[in-house]
TrEMBL record:
GO biological process, one term: DNA damage response
Organism: uncultured Quadrisphaera sp
Coiled-coil annotated residue ranges, if any: none
Cited InterPro entries: 26kDa_periplasmic_antigen (IPR052022), SIMPL/DUF541 (IPR007497)
Protein's name in the database: DUF541 domain-containing protein
Amino acid sequence: RGRLLEVTVLTARLLAPLLVVVALLAAAAAWIAAPGDASAAPARASADAGVTVAGTGTATAVPDVVRATLGAEASAPDVDGALGTADDAARRIVDVLVERGVDRADVQTAGVQLYPQYGPDGQPNAGYTARQDLTVTLRDLATAGDLIAAAVAAGGDAARLSGVSFAIADETPLRAEAREEAFADARAKAEQYAELVGRELGEPVSVREDAGPGAYGGGGFSGESAGAMADVNLAPGTSEVSTTATVRWSLR
């Protein structure tokens, strides 16, 4: 009997911690299953509910600025001769533009190059070629073609015309118009998604803008030209700016 009593007491001592653990687990399970907690999960889900969409918007206008890439290129047996001839032609180009009303601030050196000429044997022994490139902003489309022609004529055989592009001096109004269109596009998409899931569209929570490149117009003239030019006809067409608005709305 004494030994039986000792075994019984020992067993009770060993089982006591296990019973405590079982009781705690049962209490935790009851707490998780409680009605108050069941309603908390949907509340959190409702707070996180939302829809994120991207809307695009564009705005167009007739360009009011011409950007021409002009330059001068010359070859000579020596470095000084090539650089000097190209520099003289570039100066004549700038001078005629300024004389005809172009602001010097609208004439910028875009690059200066000097490289050797190679003979039939592949050796750099045939002289040197120098080139200067100028980016010119012309703010009157009506006279831009005449100005370009006059500049090329002033540069003579060394003159180069690499390209013409169009732009809008102040894009602010176009950007604002594109944003309005992008936001309206995003709202229309969000309203459709809300309807599809049986909810109502709430308030916008966040907005992120991804602006497109600046206004750029096609058309115009591009090519390597030298010598006198009778005229340069420019077709500005239209320029376009675009933007994308990524908007997140809450759902009710």
